[in-house]
């Protein structure tokens, strides 16, 4: 029986797609890294975040200059140009750190190079490099090296493929490569690949495409989960001419991962209510209701309510209170006075992310009446239906791409991620197990598997900022351990980022001086905020604005801020130190390109003589 394998580039990476080029006439090109071992010498054992170690040289025998690189060590990252950077602070406790870098050539062949980061003072370590990485062991044990990485490789047995995942609103570049589909028969025959189904040859036609020769699967434009949260495609592999070889079709499920890109929406543009003057403290007045189009039962759609303003504020600024969860507004006073205060206007705010996310406001006008009119009653909106991402067993040997799970998912826990099955379970009792960090290694029990059914679970919420990827090994053994044992399978669990971190300024307060004679446009100071969410995504894209200036004279915009860089400049023809010797600015940083979570900081600017 022919087998099929599946190679995946995670959608969180991007690479420049180069067109294959012919080799030079006078020499033959070999894809791969320049050398099998790369040694970087450093002067200290403490490596700071952002430190550049150097560069690896790689070619895929095309004109491409940028490639997808992955590191087996989470403390180091590799840019598409081959630059190796320290991702988080590292201490070389043993005087060195060893890890592997993976990349792929234009034909989808994976290449590996071993990297040694060595403290310059530990000269005794250098002679041991050949012992650690003998060339023979490197080539003969390539399969072992792959087990420590997120790379996918060909397996002999039939594993069931979980869905692919891609975040909505992904920036691309487009077309964005999702996976490579290949048959093991392509070594001896010309195989043509195609896809069918909604999003391929059915509406919306062309949303997904596949290279008929290489099997590269692409998405051609941004996806919107609120428009469609799942696509069901069929992958086909047929020998040229259609004779002699044809794989069974493969189900390809593409799940669109939710991002917090929708504000709450109130079910009325304005609310009107009456409350009897004799109402007791705690009496219900009205219920406001907002919904969120993001994924139901997730932080992105969890709404909290608050009253941001009450007019008039007499006899107290909290004559009414709101239940933050239900939106029910009640009386919070011992007595109402219709003669003095016949009407109140409340500005009610709804915020997702349990009150920390995107916001929307609505007015509630409450009239104090003399009689006991009943308040309006509003029905609950219909529940959203959540579609399932069920997996089903296939006969052919497709290799499992990375699984994806959103951080902060509410569960319920344990949360089913996938079902792992062997094609021998129809004739034998197969027992399943998992090993690796998060299974039988720290943090133990984060992932579990049902030894009979092969259902793989995560047992608690994940935090992408704590760990963005888990690498497990799946095992399938016949009962009694004899007669049948699958090769271990790499299981990569990617933690999808959610916008759960506010921007953080690098100072608690900023102080600056600006000469009185400064010209319009003169730079004063630069403020800087960072966001712990996924780099180069909307969740961490910060914009700045000045929300308040004190004093507001001679104009409320004596200073302006560049929304992208955070540079504050003079926006006046002249400053007057005698009248206005000092200004206090309240600067706000917001992620989601200015539409998301916010943080504020004070900037105190003194106008000086010089």
- N-to-C span: 84 Å
- The counted number of beta strands is 44
Strand order within the widest beta sheet: 1-14-17-16
Unreliable segments of 5+ consecutive residues: 1-27, 122-160, 372-398
The CATH fourth-level homologous superfamily of the domain at 31-146: Cadherins
Query: Radius of gyration, Cα only, in angstroms?
Result: 30 Å
Helix content: under 10%
| Beta-strand content bin | 35-45%
Q: Would you mind describing this structure in some detail?
A:
The chain is built from five helices and 44 strands. It starts with a strand and ends with a strand. The longest helix is centred in the first third of the chain and has 6 residues, at 135-140. Strand 41 (559-561) and strand 42 form a beta hairpin. The strands form 14 sheets. A four-stranded antiparallel β-sheet has the order 1-14-17-16, with no helix packed on it. The chain has a four-stranded mixed β-sheet with strand order 3-12-11-7, with no helix packed on it. A four-stranded mixed β-sheet has the order 13-19-18-15, with no helix packed on it. By secondary structure, the protein is mainly β. Among the domains are: 31-146, Immunoglobulin-like (Sandwich); 268-369, Sandwich (Immunoglobulin-like), CATH 2.60.40; 402-499, Sandwich (Immunoglobulin-like), CATH 2.60.40.60; 504-608, Cadherins (Immunoglobulin-like, Sandwich), CATH 2.60.40.60. Helix content is 4%, strand content 38%.
């Amino acid at each position: 029986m022919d087998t099929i394998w599946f190679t995946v580039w995670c959608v969180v990476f991007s690479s420049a797609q180069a067109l294959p080029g012919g080799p030079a006439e006078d020499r033959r090109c070999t894809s791969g890294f320049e050398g099998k071992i790369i040694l970087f010498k450093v002067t200290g054992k403490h490596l700071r975040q952002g430190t550049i170690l150097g560069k690896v040289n790689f070619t895929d025998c095309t004109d491409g200059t940028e490639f997808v690189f992955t590191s087996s060590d989470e403390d180091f990252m590799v840019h598409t140009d081959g630059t190796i950077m320290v991702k988080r602070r590292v201490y070389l406790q043993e005087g060195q750190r060893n890890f592997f870098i993976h990349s792929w050539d234009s034909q989808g062949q994976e290449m590996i190079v071993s990297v040694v980061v060595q403290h310059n003072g530990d000269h005794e370590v250098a002679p041991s490099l050949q012992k650690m990485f003998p060339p023979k062991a490197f080539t003969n044990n390539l399969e072992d090296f792959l087990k420590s990485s997120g790379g996918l490789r060909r397996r002999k047995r039939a594993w069931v493929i979980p869905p692919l995942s891609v975040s909505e609103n992904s920036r691309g570049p487009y077309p964005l490569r999702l996976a490579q589909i290949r048959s093991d028969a392509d070594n001896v025959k010309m195989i043509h690949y195609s896809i069918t189904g909604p999003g391929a040859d059915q509406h919306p036609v062309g949303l997904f495409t596949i290279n008929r020769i290489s099997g590269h699967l692409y998405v051609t434009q941004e996806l919107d989960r609120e428009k469609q949260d799942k696509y069901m495609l069929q992958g086909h592999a047929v020998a040229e001419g259609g004779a002699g070889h044809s794989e069974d079709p493969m189900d390809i499920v593409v799940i669109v991962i939710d991002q917090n890109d929708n504000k709450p929406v109130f079910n009325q543009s304005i609310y009107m209510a009456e409350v009897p003057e004799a109402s007791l403290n705690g009496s219900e007045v009205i219920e406001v209701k907002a919904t969120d189009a993001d994924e139901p039962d997730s932080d992105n759609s969890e709404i909290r309510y608050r009253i941001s303003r009450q007019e008039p504020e007499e006899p107290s600024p909290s004559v009414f209170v709101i239940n933050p969860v239900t939106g029910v507004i009640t009386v919070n006073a011992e007595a109402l006075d219709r003669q003095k205060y016949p009407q109140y206007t409340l500005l009610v705010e709804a915020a997702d992310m349990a009150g920390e996310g995107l916001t929307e406001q609505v007015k509630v006008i409450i009239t104090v009446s003399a009689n006991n009119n009943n308040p309006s009653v509003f029905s609950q909106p219909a529940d959203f239906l959540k579609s399932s991402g069920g997996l089903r067993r296939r006969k052919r040997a497709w290799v499992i791409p990375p699984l994806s799970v959103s951080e902060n998912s509410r569960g319920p826990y344990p949360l089913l991620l996938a079902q792992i099955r062997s094609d021998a379970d129809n004739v034998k009792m197969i027992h399943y197990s998992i090993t690796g960090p998060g299974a039988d290694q720290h943090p133990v029990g984060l992932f579990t598997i049902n030894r009979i059914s092969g259902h793989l679970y995560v047992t608690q919420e994940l935090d992408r900022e704590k760990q963005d990827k888990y690498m497990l090994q799946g095992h399938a053994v016949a009962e009694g351990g004899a007669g049948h044992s699958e090769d271990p399978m790499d299981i990569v669990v990617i933690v999808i980022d959610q916008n759960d971190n506010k921007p953080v300024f690098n100072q608690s307060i900023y102080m600056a001086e600006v000469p009185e004679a400064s010209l319009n446009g003169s730079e004063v100071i630069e403020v800087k905020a960072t966001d712990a969410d996924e780099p180069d995504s909307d969740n961490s894209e910060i914009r700045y604005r000045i929300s308040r200036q004190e004093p507001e004279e001679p104009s409320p915009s004596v200073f302006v801020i560049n929304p992208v860089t955070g540079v504050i400049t003079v926006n006046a023809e002249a400053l007057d130190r005698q009248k206005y010797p000092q200004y206090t600015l309240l600067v706000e940083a917001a992620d989601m390109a200015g539409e998301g979570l916010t943080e504020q900081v004070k900037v105190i600017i003194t106008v000086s003589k010089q």
